[in-house]
Design brief:
165 residues; alpha/beta; 8-stranded mixed β-sheet; 5 helices; globular
Length: 165
């Protein structure tokens, strides 16, 4: 069974409590975005962690997942459309300025002081991630990973990989 850790803090950017979960003890950091209105624990409940367990146990990857704060605002019809657009922008800032630095700090070592972060998105979030990559070109390289539900749980179909610098 892989190591699990959950961090929670108040984000001024999105003006709410946020969660960042981590599975694994070593390896390539991978940020997995949950579905549109999902939370940080969704990927475990949808059995993705079970599928990735061999890689986690071998120390090949460390999986991270955060709350989909912007998606929750959209699906919950929180506030006006303008507020939801603002929340989407703030969510992108939260990923860039809070989540990615937290992952880098967790993975920091003398051998790799600033590791790249691979990003995995579920298919329905692919367009949002592409927008995010285009918005923050200096932060991300144009590689993308996508997952989709399969007949026996989650199957990972790699189109390319996203690495945050």
């Amino acid at each position: 069974m892989s190591t699990f850790e959950s961090s929670r803090w108040y984000s001024e950017r999105v003006r709410c409590e946020v969660t960042l979960n981590r599975w694994g003890h070593a390896g390539q950091p991978v940020l997995v975005f949950p579905t549109a209105a999902g939370d940080a624990g969704e990927i475990d409940r949808f059995l993705m962690i079970r599928v990735l367990e061999p890689l986690l146990a071998a120390g090949r990857v460390k999986i991270y997942s955060c709350d989909s704060v912007a998606g929750q605002a959209w699906f919950g019809k929180e506030g006006s459309p303008e507020h939801r657009m603002w929340m989407t922008h703030q969510f992108h800032q939260y990923i860039k300025n809070e989540v990615v630095p937290a992952i880098r700090m967790d993975c920091k070592s003398k051998a790799a002081p600033s590791p790249s972060v691979m990003v995995l998105v579920v298919r329905c979030r692919l367009r949002e991630w592409l927008l995010h990559v285009c918005t923050f070109v200096p932060v991300a390289t144009p590689d993308i990973c996508s997952s989709s539900p399969g007949p026996q749980g989650v199957s990972l179909g790699v189109a390319a990989r996203t690495r945050l610098r």
